[in-house]
Design a protein that fits this description.
By secondary structure, the protein is α+β, with helices and mostly antiparallel strands. Helices cover 35% and strands 17% of the residues. Strand 16 and strand 17 form a beta hairpin. GO terms for molecular function: D-lactate dehydrogenase (cytochrome) activity; D-lactate dehydrogenase (NAD+) activity; FAD binding.
Length: 557
Amino acid sequence: MPQKLISLIENVLTTDSSLSFDPQQLSRFMLGTEGLACFENKQRSILAVITLTQSHEIKALLDLANHCATDEELAFSLYPISTGKNWGYGTSQPAGTAKNIILLDLGQLTDIKHFDSELGLVTIEPGVTQQQLSDYLLLNNHNYMVPVTGAGPDCSILANALERGYGITPYTDHFAAVNSIQGYWANGTPYQSAVNELDASDDKLVDKTFKWGLGPYLEGLFTQSNLGIVSQMTIRLAKKKADFTSFFIQMEDDALLEEAVPLIRQVLQDYEGIVGSINLMDQRRLLSMFAKNPNGNDAHQVMENQDVERLAKKLQAPNWTIVGSIYGSVGVVKAVKKEINRIFKQLPCKRIYSNSLIIVVANKVIKYIPSLLINKVPPLSVAVEQLDSFNKGKEIMLGKPNKVALKLAYWRHTETAGFDKNELSPGKDGCGLLWYAPLVTMKAKKMREFVEFVRETCPKYNIEPFITFTNLKHDCVDSTIPIVFDLSNPQAVIDAHNCLKALVTEGLKKGFVPYRLNIDQQQWLLDKDSDFWQTVNKIKASLDPHNILSQGRYNPH
């Protein structure tokens, strides 16, 4: 790295911010769950890492990058990350493989800049994590929920919203809950909405209350793009309700899927705003939460049907499990619970609620059983683990972040048993994980077609077909298929990527289109000559004429 460039960068940084090109420091940011280097046979690299502590430094660095762009010796590009925990989609690695990429670490921008307890509006910087916001709300006794995800407490809230992520709390669509954005386009021009520009008051609060602003809606250009950097975001938080219960509807017969789908749709339509999003998980996916891999964690092979049947019987895991939540007053929750019972009585199924007497009693009894006894009695140990996962799943529905969902990434990790379940970090721990996340029309026939497609395709590549459907609305579901593999096994890495590619390419022919792509897919799947991406590139040329920001991110070249 030229000394002149080092000096130029250091001159625009404040005292607490830093520039590092130490190889050991850089390597930490190149750890991912995707195995991209092995599969692509090309090395991604970064020139340096800049860690910011003040948001105004973003503009100074963008201005510098644009100024240096025409100088061959000094030219560099910036690749911003928040917390860098985008597991399975790239983690903290840059999308491009160009030279002179400087990673811009915004993880230290952790200011909660504004909170309106009356309206439930919070303004946060990129580095604010699920856990930090949770701690803030608890400390100040604010009765609101964190928009949590299964990615874990240490993940950025702002970044998940910009990636158009979702969760299972009442405000399922996280970008839909974003009311306002401030930041900078790649050319260094500051961005704020027209409403904020016109507002001559001291508090400028009205912009934080209205998503769509005035004039063309530009804030969507910051999502899944490489057009600008968001320095702060105001999101609307869901208020905690007086009462809550989660429900688990278990179906023993795989063939009941077609009958269950219209009933789930009915619940979502009839009780919108009361029932949150609903998850539908198959048996193998459920077993990945509670069972040990019967093949051993180092085996690159799927479970045999007899193994699945044996584990399912032992753990009482049904073929399909419907998971949802009810939020409201005591009377509303009681009434909707009664209605859900009525609706699903049409099916041979078992219905369990988190406020059921058996669950309440079980939680009280477990507290008095010595841990030594639990560890010595395998059936008891399994029951306790299932109850713990059940309770942690309930916490997520209540907006309390935890790491229960991260266990999935360790299904084929050779050293799974050695990790503390409270300290899981898939990238740092060397887990192998990719995601296939297509949209599926919520019709029973189409969902069955998807299930058969995944179950037929994944085993061809020795990948376990774990299936989850999440209802984004009554008419559309997203299916998150985790491709879990041994990152230390080169053949497993190749098979995992080939499996993903087969799922995507063949799935498109069936109408299963991903809503989110990893940094490798963004290049080989998207057509730079299509009308859509030609339009994106015209916008890119206007807002980033020197192509200095996030080269290749959601922008095929």
